[in-house]
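Dear colleagues,

For the upcoming journal club I promised to circulate an example of a predicted protein-ligand complex. I picked one with hypoxanthine because it came up in last month's discussion. The inputs are reproduced below in full, followed by the predicted structure.
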Amino acid sequence: MSVHIGAEKGAIADTVLLPGDPLRAKYIAQQFLSDTVCYNEVRGMFGYTGLYNGKRISVQGSGMGQASLSIYINELITEYNVKNIIRVGSCGSFHSHIPVRDIIIAMSASSDSAMNRERFQGNSYAPTADFTLFRTMIDRAEEMNISYHAGNILATDTFYQDNPEGWRKWAEYGVLGVEMESAALYTLAAKFGARALTVCTVSDNLSTGESTTSEERENSFTEMMKLALETAIKLPDS
Ligand code: HPA
């Protein structure tokens, strides 16, 4: 047991898929894994371990935002020895050429959060995806004929921004879109020597105003999940 995860040691697999929404974690476990065991219900932040193509995989909700995610990442890595974390999320796109339902694979994560300013005493750290995970996912996407965008994303601390046009500066510098978790994910994985990668489906487009229906979100989510799971089973054993 750790402070926020009620699992026995050994109950969580080396590779964890990490949606923000705990009910997504439940759905993934039910739809894609076999021999599934629920190892965590603390705070309703469900976590499950099961088999995908014979390989042990866990799926754990992180909650929304870097503050919540950081708690789970700390405990997954330092208390449960998790080696690979693939965040499966949604994001807003900044560009008209990246419409809703497209997939973004985050090579790096910019942020408006004070977390790393504090940690690095005012200096600017560049949170970066793990290269092995990234390359494995890109290879799988190409084998599976899944199209994707790869690049920098913004991890914001504020979903409802005071300045509704503030995203345009990030877009100008090539940032692809916005979510709320990946800078902390990449930073903590680097700190503790684990691998991390974020893949997102685009749920809304800040440039065009387009957004997805729940049915469209479901379908694009399924494609992303298959990509994440097929990546997970190709990773080298630890
Ligand atoms: N902002 C922040 N996070 C998000 C968004 C957004 O517009 N869309 C999906 N996740």
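Two points we might discuss: Strands lie at 15-18, 34-40, 47-52, 55-60, 84-93, 103-111, 149-155, 177-179, 195-205. Residues 90-92, 156, 159, 178-180, 203-204 surround hypoxanthine (CB under 6 Å).

See you all on Thursday,
B. R.
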